[in-house]
């Protein structure tokens, strides 16, 4: 893992400590976040919109993610750096592992991928390859074109049940954390 260790988030949670996470796409931002004590620094594929001027995340390439992960990794000494697997780079378990390895080689000891129960086998394969995975459920930016835009998830009972099913599936697959994006605020804290 390029000498960078994973913070023990389960121990932090068990102690009732807050876990902080922010996004960085470059060396100076990652360094400032790391020095400020942020626990997780994500090199998100949102860099497509924020840095590269794309209309959404669906044009971000693996080469771009590797480039920005390398830059951010140079600024991180303490935090856990997590890099997004870009769209079409984890269409099956074998490809997910290969992509995750490239991002680890670029300096991220952990990766993030979008998808719940439908992606559990991919998460499991990456975890079994020794790479920690942060899952991402709810609104999935890489699916924004198929879904017709960004919209809140979890409002209906069926969407809530799907979120819970997805959360359980990614946890069982070995994800160390789960991002809930654009989930109805009153539904996000629900446990079951």
Concise overview:
With 192 residues, this protein is an alpha/beta fold.
Commentary on this structure:
The chain is an alpha/beta fold and 192 residues long. The protein has helices at residues 9-14, 27-35, 47-50, 62-73, 93-105, 120-128, 144-147, 157-173; strands at residues 21-23, 40-43, 80-84, 110-114, 133-138, 177-181. It has a six-stranded parallel sheet with strand order 1-2-3-4-5-6. β4 (110-114), α6 (120-128) and β5 (133-138) form a beta-alpha-beta unit. α2 packs across α4 (62-73) and α5 packs across α6 (120-128). The radius of gyration is 16 Å and the shape is globular. The termini are far apart. 41% of the residues are buried. The model has no long low-confidence stretch (mean pLDDT 89).
Sheet with most strands: 6 strands, parallel
Number of DSSP strand runs:
6
Please provide the ordered H/E string of secondary-structure elements.
HEHEHHEHEHEHHE
Beta-strand percentage range = 5-15%
List keywords for this structure.
192 residues; 8 helices; alpha/beta; 15% strand
Give the topology.
Blueprint: H1 9-14, E1 21-23, H2 27-35, E2 40-43, H3 47-50, H4 62-73, E3 80-84, H5 93-105, E4 110-114, H6 120-128, E5 133-138, H7 144-147, H8 157-173, E6 177-181
């Amino acid at each position: 893992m390029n000498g960078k260790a994973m913070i023990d988030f389960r121990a932090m949670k068990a102690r009732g400590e807050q876990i902080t996470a922010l996004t960085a796409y470059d060396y100076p931002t990652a360094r400032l976040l790391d020095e400020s004590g942020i626990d997780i620094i994500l090199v998100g594929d949102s860099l497509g919109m924020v840095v590269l001027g794309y209309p959404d995340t669906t044009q971000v390439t693996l080469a771009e993610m590797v480039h920005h992960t390398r830059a951010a990794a140079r600024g991180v000494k303490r935090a856990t750096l997590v890099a997004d697997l870009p769209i079409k780079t984890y269409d099956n378990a074998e490809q997910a592992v290969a992509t995750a390895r490239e991002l680890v080689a670029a300096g991220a000891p952990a990766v993030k991928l979008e998808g719940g129960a439908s992606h559990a086998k991919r998460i499991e394969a990456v975890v079994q390859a020794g790479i920690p995975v942060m899952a991402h459920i709810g609104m999935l930016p890489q699916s924004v074109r198929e879904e017709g835009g960004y919209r809140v998830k979890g409002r209906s009972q069926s969407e809530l049940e799907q979120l819970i099913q997805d959360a359980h599936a990614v946890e069982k697959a070995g994800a160390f954390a789960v991002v809930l994006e654009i989930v109805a605020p009153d539904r996000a804290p629900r446990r079951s």
